[in-house]
Backbone:
């Protein structure tokens, strides 16, 4: 195999679509920090040149981390020797077998694509790993077999009520949805980043406290959700009133005045009790007309 050295912009490297190797969020952040400190990669990714592009067979996380760290170029080893799909997978698994952790599902999928016995040996998987793969099964995701893992968080009474209100609001906004969505891994990473920033800013270690801080930031900025509809040009959509006036409390006396006016409008038949928002619209329209 012809192997050579090159320096390349990591953004021009094509990453693997199916990579058995995974890295925990905190480990990846630590890798990025180390690369920023060193100003370079201390171990080289291995690339395969084909169809005018470089595919990263080994070092996908290092390549991603170098991009995150802002490196313009990184040192790599590469080969342009023609390789079959089995050979590329075997190289990928052999490098992964040296250190780190693999996702069993992806590892099993990739390993089963190798038909050549010698390449299976080359992949470097030991008997213990192969025994694990034999016991591992996969299934399709559907409402019938989708399993959930429960995460328990402890809130103080006042914090719990605040959290319940925000969650109830989120449910109300999305109650018309008839589909089930799974978040992308990038969204999960973004959530962890938000939690880390909230924890660091307030110097707290408790996850529930960090979640409460994030929810409070949402409450203070819920009015910014109006950006989603204010210029949409579609006046038939329904939007949460919090995105109009925010989650603001008003004095009891003011609340009584507003409620009395709305009750009076409903009593005259101008609005219905189930559409009090129409009364607010009428009052605001009259105010604007008097400008």
Residues:
């Amino acid at each position: 195999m012809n192997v050579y050295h090159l320096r390349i912009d990591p953004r021009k490297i094509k990453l693997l679509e199916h990579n058995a190797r995974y890295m925990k969020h905190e480990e990846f952040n630590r890798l990025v920090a180390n690369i920023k400190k060193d100003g370079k990669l201390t171990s080289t990714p291995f690339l395969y040149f084909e169809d005018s592009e470089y595919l990263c067979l080994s070092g996908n996380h290092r390549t991603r981390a170098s991009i995150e760290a802002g490196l313009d170029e990184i040192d790599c080893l590469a080969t342009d020797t023609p390789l079959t799909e089995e050979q590329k997978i075997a190289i990928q698994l052999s490098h992964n077998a040296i250190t780190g952790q693999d996702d069993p599902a992806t590892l099993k999928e990739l390993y089963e694509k190798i038909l050549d016995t010698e390449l299976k040996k080359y992949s470097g998987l030991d008997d213990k790993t192969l025994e694990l793969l034999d016991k591992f099964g996969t299934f399709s995701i559907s409402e019938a077999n989708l399993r959930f893992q429960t995460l328990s968080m402890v809130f103080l009474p006042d914090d719990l009520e605040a959290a319940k209100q925000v969650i109830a609001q989120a449910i109300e906004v999305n109650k018309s949805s008839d589909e089930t969505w799974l978040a992308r891994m990038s969204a999960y990473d973004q959530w962890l980043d938000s939690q880390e920033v909230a924890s660091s800013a307030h110097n707290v270690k408790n996850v529930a406290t960090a979640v409460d801080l994030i929810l409070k930031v949402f409450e203070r900025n819920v009015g910014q959700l109006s950006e989603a509809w204010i210029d949409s040009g579609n006046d038939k959509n329904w939007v949460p009133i919090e995105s109009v006036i925010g989650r603001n409390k008003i004095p009891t006396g003011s609340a009584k005045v507003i409620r009395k006016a709305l009750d009076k409008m409903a009593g005259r038949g101008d609005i219905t009790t189930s559409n009090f928002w129409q009364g607010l619209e009428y009052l605001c329209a009259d105010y604007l007309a008097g400008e």
The first strand starts at residue 3 and ends at 8. The two ends are 81 Å apart (CA to CA). The longest helix spans residues 185-202. Residues 3-135 form a domain with the Conserved hypothetical protein from pyrococcus furiosus pfu- 392566-001, ParB domain fold (CATH 3.90.1530.10).
